[in-house]
Amino acid sequence: MRDEGMRDEVRAEYLSPAELDSALAATAVAYLPLGTLEFHSSHLPIGLDALTAHGLCVASARHNGGIVLPPLYQGTGGGHAEYPWTIMMHSAAGIRSHLEQTLQRLEALGVRLAVLFTGHFADEQLTMIDTIAADWAVAGSDRGTHTMRVFATAVNRCGTAPIAPDHAGVFETTLLHALWPQLVHVDRLPALSEHAAIDPGDNDQGPQRHDPEHPLWGIFGPDPRDLDLSASAALLDALVAWLGGEVTARTADFDYR
Prior knowledge:
The chain is an alpha/beta fold. Helices cover about 35% and strands about 10% of the residues. It has six helices and four strands; from the N terminus they run H-E-H-E-H-E-H-E-H-H. It has helices at about 15-25, 50-65, 95-110, 125-145, 170-180, 230-250, and strands at about 30-35, 65-70, 115-120, 150-155. The model has no long low-confidence stretch (mean pLDDT about 95).
């Protein structure tokens, strides 16, 4: 992979065919950011998972090369299916078909590594992307037909992140602030001074967080109301460095001569 410094536009939908071909000639990597439409309490947008996945993929591609496809907002799994404005796919079959057909086209277009990267990390979503990648590898090994590799990972799989992953808590609020600060509205949560979050045994993952009367309704993780948003740049840097490292390790043997 050739390092030419920071790239400008890497989002595929903004590039012409010639520009896409040029980008892949330099670094034949395509990122597929995945998320869902899901309630993230009152202070965050429902598209957060796709927004953060897309932002991280764009940052990685700008530093390391490659192109980024538009984010997929349809996701599956998790405990928020009946929450306001959550639009969850109850079956992964349709999403999987969409992704597999996309992968087939990317391979035909010259991509050599496709990165399935999800900001929605419910078990069902993780199983889906891992299965797609595993089945792709098996098919290529058995029949020798694939010229492209598929790498599947998720925002919660970074072992070096300075903040532990959560749902709408300190982690996701801080990460979205690093990418889209105008979309974070912590002041829309009940005031901490008037509505302390009292969780049995300090359990911020407990069923009480499903209660609409709880001040942190729908938030599973540390209370974000008094978080230090100045930490957002460090979290973003750690995640981008990790994702870029994972991709670089899987393209080290690519020959662009």
